[in-house]
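User: I'm writing a tutorial on reading structure tokens. Could you give me a worked example: one chain, its sequence, then its tokens, then a sentence or two explaining what the tokens reveal?
Assistant: Sure. Here is the example chain.
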Amino acid sequence: MNINQRILELARKVKGRVVMPEGFDIRVLKAAQRLTKDGIASIILPVDDVKKTEKTAAEAGIDLSGIEIIKTDRNLLDEKKIEEFVSARVRKGMAEQEALELLNKPLYFSMMYLKSGKCKACVGGAVYDTADVLRAGLHVIGTAGNVKMISSYFLMIPPEGHNLVKDPVLFADCAVNPDPQAVGLRDIAVATVGSFKRLFPDRQANVAMLSFSTKGSAGSKILSKVTEATALAKAYFAGNSDVNVDGELQFDAAVVPSVGKRKAPDSLVAGNANIFIFPELNAGNIGCKIAERYGGFRAIGPVIQGLALPVSDLSRGASVDDIYLISAVMLLD
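And here are its predicted structure tokens:
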């Protein structure tokens, strides 16, 4: 069974409900149809105009049978959670009515639907940009109790017959934080290990803290951030035999066993990494897209880490297949 089939089978067993705030997008409607038909998830589409959505689907030949299409209505949400949200927004200077009206918008409604316990995950971002999705998630759902930094990961699935990688790996952070400092990189590493373990509970987590240098091979002040973050992450996972952390490591030293052995002979991670923590967003985003476009990897995500409940921020270039698979991934979070 390949990784795609494994994820889908595990998601099917969860029998979860997924809310999608972009029911006006053809890709989302097609993915919702497949997820419903294949028994992967129950889909809820909150929309401004139900008839318009049904007309859009009919014109595209999309069967919406079994999909719950609802008009955004605050009466469907948890009243106490609404009060908490409005109170928090008013404290930040927003008018009460303005805060209430936000919850009539499909994106905010969907987040509150999730917060109200009506579904397992929210999958958005095919149309809304990252800033919109994160803002709605932070304002409505909030952060997990032990997390100070919101971040993201991509599930990177190698092509069949890849000469180095046989199993999926995780790249982080490739979508959210422009330039995290050492403590932030530590938090990203900790969150990504948690995501990895939820997806692959039986696999050893080998975390590479990436840089342009391996073990001091290049001298530069900008390396201090990665070396400090490595020390912090190692301390966090001290005594955890299921997690190895090392850095700073160049990408080739992290993934090629012969290079890893030569450049970092005492490292348990070098040549065996399956979690890659990039030093900043430029490197992460570029690395992810190179692996996808030149390397043939399938990039699933970004999946948001650090919110109290599962939220995905899809790439706006996401395909129907991407939306379909990431919806399944979210049910495993």
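What the tokens reveal: The chain has a mean pLDDT of 93. The two ends are 21 Å apart (CA to CA).
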